[in-house]
Amino acid sequence: MEHPFTWYSLLPYPINLIAEPNFTALVVMLVLIVLALAFRKSLQRAKDPAIPDEGVTVRNVMEVLVEIVVGLSDSIIGKKGRKYVPLFGTLFLFILIGNFFGLIPGITPPTSDFFVNLGMGLVVFVAYNYFGVRENGAHYFKQFMGPMLLLAPLFILIEFFSHIFRPISLSIRLFGNMFGDHLVLEIFSNLTKLVIPVAFYILGSLVSVIQAAVFMILSVIYVAMAISHEH
Amino acid sequence: MRKLLSFVTAAVLGIFTSGVAMAAAEAAPAGGDYSRAALAIAAGLAIAIGAFGAALGQGRLAAAAMESIGRNPNAADRIQLPMILGLAFIEALALYAFVIAFFLQGKI
Question: At the N or C end, where does chain B have fewer CB atoms within 10 A?
Fold first, then answer.
């Protein structure tokens, strides 16, 4: 299969040394930083921060996104989950913007690279174990032992594999969705140049939003399971 | 349904065993071609069977969710989130099949 045109291939030599997914991820980060600065500035400039702007502005869009993340974390973890919201928000925004970048012709989204996703999955894995230990202390490790001491060896094995597999399944899910989506879009754009790809663009934007939300919801659930006290 | 299933199984087994038998019989001279054909068939079957199972599962889940929303439209918000989660979990299985199929396709 010959590789289709990407804007990345036009880059000159020194920038070329950064691999393609890393470069796109850097561009996504740049976009996020610019958005965050614009949001911060418009919040500072507003006369009354409680009154929203009129029309579609950066501030309104960002406020909607923040509300989605905070609402989800509140409904699953509760009020004490507020201090973990930055992690979920970072993941959600990065994946969302990255997925949307994939809809621009000639750009491969950073999330369609397995190792970018594995990085995010490992961050979630380390984070929820750390949060669990910080919240519950040594009791956190009791949840791996199962209901009775006799069954502990069996349960430790089962829990070990189910926990190890979490970041891998998180990253494979995102990778497969974005990669498959991109591939379908590419194939149908090659087959029929007009009209038909629009349907797959709609599907693609739907998948982009849902997968970003799913990644975030699952990490919220993992953190909620780790820091809850009744085990 | 059972008839269809048994037919499909028989067809799959037949394809595989005949492929293996033929590859074994022909051995060295044209051996490469048969392994490539087996890879192509395997890649196609991997994603086909994977998508088949995931489609059945997602269909059941969506049907149950629609039914419960129809019975109690007020609960739609609370049903939607677990439904999307369940869809994502089932979807992951199809994606594993997709990844395997893609690797197999790359080996042809």
Answer: N
